[in-house]
């Protein structure tokens, strides 16, 4: 299945233990997808391309951007 929705290059992805897929892009967003590829939501907040994703413990998603920040989101 093809996951579409970003408006610029996809730079990285991460998969949670529950199968949720997280994708980051040069469009400054993180998209959240179900295991079967359905779009769940879009996380907006960075002021530059997002180049790093990591799924942490306690339902946290860490996102690093060229804007020199790391944002922490809840995966719930």
Task: Walk me through what this model shows.
- The protein is mainly beta and 76 residues long.
- The strands form two sheets. The protein has a four-stranded antiparallel sheet, with no helix packed on it.
- A hairpin with a 5-residue loop joins strand 3 and strand 4 (39-44).
- Helix content is 0%, strand content 53%.
- The chain is built from no helices and seven strands.
Largest sheet: 4 strands, antiparallel
Output the helix-strand order: EEEEEEE
Query: Hey, roughly how much beta strand do the residues contain?
Result: over 45%
Q: Strand order across the biggest sheet?
A: 1-2-3-4
Task: Give descriptors for this structure.
mainly beta; 53% strand; 76 residues; three-stranded antiparallel β-sheet; four-stranded antiparallel β-sheet; 7 strands
Would you summarize the structure shown here?
The chain is an all-beta fold.
Topology overview:
Elements: E1 10-15, E2 21-25, E3 29-33, E4 39-44, E5 50-56, E6 60-65, E7 70-74
Antiparallel strand pairs: 1-2, 2-3, 3-4, 5-6, 6-7
């Amino acid at each position: 299945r093809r996951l579409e929705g970003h408006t610029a290059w996809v730079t990285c992805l991460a998969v949670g233990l529950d199968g949720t897929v997280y994708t980051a892009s040069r469009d400054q967003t993180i998209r959240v997808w179900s295991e079967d590829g359905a779009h769940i939501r879009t996380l907006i907040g960075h002021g530059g391309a997002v180049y790093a994703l990591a799924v942490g413990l306690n339902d946290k998603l860490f996102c690093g951007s060229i804007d020199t920040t790391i944002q922490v989101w809840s995966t719930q």
